[in-house]
Structure formats: structure tokens, C-alpha cells
Automatic annotation (TrEMBL):
Its EC number is 1.20.4.4. Gene3D superfamilies: 3.40.50.2300, Corynebacterium glutamicum thioredoxin-dependent arsenate reductase, N-terminal domain. NCBIfam families: MSMEG_6209_Nter. SUPFAM superfamilies: Phosphotyrosine protein phosphatases I. This is Arsenate reductase ArsC. The keyword Oxidoreductase applies. It is an enzyme of class 1 (oxidoreductase).
Length: 217
């Protein structure tokens, strides 16, 4: 078992889960990244969630999911992408606006484009009112999770959409940025979130049109 995981004082179950995750990622990215890179990304992803996770048993799963996204981003930066446009949605907590935008983007674009999201001060969970309002449109974002952004994720994105994160949002020269001024759904009831949701859908559809990505009806 890698010493990397032992040094963190993890339980045996967590160590085994991370070891299994590293093996899965190694198989998935064989020929693109070596074991050292994969374990480093998994290790640092775990650290980013460790201080906020409400249930420690879920940490290895969150770390694996985020490490996978980061490795895909790094592959894109290093010239191994598949050509599909990547859009990154950023807000403060990655619990409401950016998650709703990602939900619409993923649903409407299908496999034709890639959507990611992140937060400058990512929360411990998704806003329940955002989940409920999206469910009314047949889109399930309950399985998503707040996450930070990392350098390779921002670098890989073709378009970065910011929503209220101000100076905390990362700026990379030459990258396309849009700032969407939207009310923060934090603390709002579902009926108050619906107008925000509908405006986000309108903007996502317009963005897909600009990217020449046909949106599902």
C-alpha cells in the first residue's frame, strides 16, 4: 500500500479505497500518465476535500472523481484532448448557480461538449433549493458535489463563465471569459430560485448556440 496514504493517518478502509481508486485511474489513463502523477493528483484531491467532507467515508470517492477530472484536464492541456469544447462554470460556493448551469449544459449539450464547475470557497454540499428547482425541469444535480478549481482545469477550459466570485476567479490571458450577473440562490426558497434557474437556462442555450453546439430540444 502506498506510503503516501499511510502518512495521512487514514483508516484501513480509506487506504484500501484510495489504493483501489489509484488502480482504476491507472488503468484509465494508461499510456498518458504514470503512476506517480496519478497518485499525486489523487493525494492532493483528497487533501482538498478532507477539511470539508461531512462523511469521511465518501472522501476517497470524491477524491477519485475530482482527480479523474483533473487528469482529463491535464491531458487536454498536454494535447491529448478530443476536440470537444470545454466550458467551466465558476461561482463562490459551487453549490447553486454554477451547479445549475452545469446541469443545463450537460443535459442540453449531451456528448457534444464538456462542462465542469468549481468554487472559490466551495461548500460542503449542494443547495437543496437548487436541486429541487432543477428536478422540476427533469435534471438531477443531487449527485454532483461542490469542488474547487485547479490550474490545469482552468487552463484546459475553452470558455470560463464566472458568477459572483469577483477577484477570486482565476484569470488566464487569452482565454474567453463571460461574467453572468445572477442572484445567489443561497438561503432562498425554491420559488425564489426558479427565476434564477430559468435565466441560467436561457444563458446556457445562448452559449451553446455561440459554440455551434446543437442543444437538445
Amino acid at each position: 500500500m502506498p506510503d503516501t496514504y499511510k502518512r495521512h493517518g487514514l483508516t484501513i478502509d480509506q487506504q484500501l479505497a484510495l489504493t483501489t481508486a489509484a488502480r482504476r485511474l491507472g488503468e484509465e489513463f494508461a499510456g498518458t500518465f504514470g503512476t506517480e502523477t496519478i497518485e499525486r493528483f489523487l493525494h492532493t484531491s483528497y487533501d482538498q476535500f478532507a477539511s470539508k467532507a461531512a462523511v469521511a467515508n465518501f472522501l476517497p470517492l470524491l477524491a477519485e472523481r475530482f482527480a479523474r477530472q483533473r487528469l482529463h484536464a491535464l491531458a487536454r492541456v498536454e494535447g491529448h484532448g478530443d476536440g470537444r469544447p470545454i466550458v467551466l462554470f465558476l461561482c463562490v460556493h459551487n453549490a447553486g448557480r454554477s451547479q445549475m448551469a452545469l446541469g443545463f449544459f450537460t443535459e442540453l449539450a449531451g456528448e457534444a461538449a464538456v462542462g465542469w464547475s468549481g468554487g472559490s470557497e466551495f461548500a460542503a454540499g449542494i443547495n437543496p433549493a437548487a436541486v429541487a428547482s432543477m428536478a422540476e425541469r427533469g435534471i438531477d444535480i443531487s449527485r454532483e458535489y461542490p469542488k474547487p478549481w485547479t490550474e490545469e482545469i482552468v487552463a484546459a477550459a475553452d470558455v470560463v463563465i464566472t458568477m459572483g466570485c469577483g477577484d477570486a476567479c482565476p484569470i488566464y490571458p487569452g482565454k474567453r471569459y463571460e461574467d453572468w450577473e445572477l442572484d445567489d440562490p443561497a438561503g432562498l426558497a425554491v420559488e425564489q430560485v426558479r427565476p434564477i434557474r430559468d435565466e441560467i437556462e436561457r444563458r446556457v442555450r445562448a452559449l451553446l448556440e455561440q459554440l455551434d453546439v446543437p442543444a437538445k430540444a
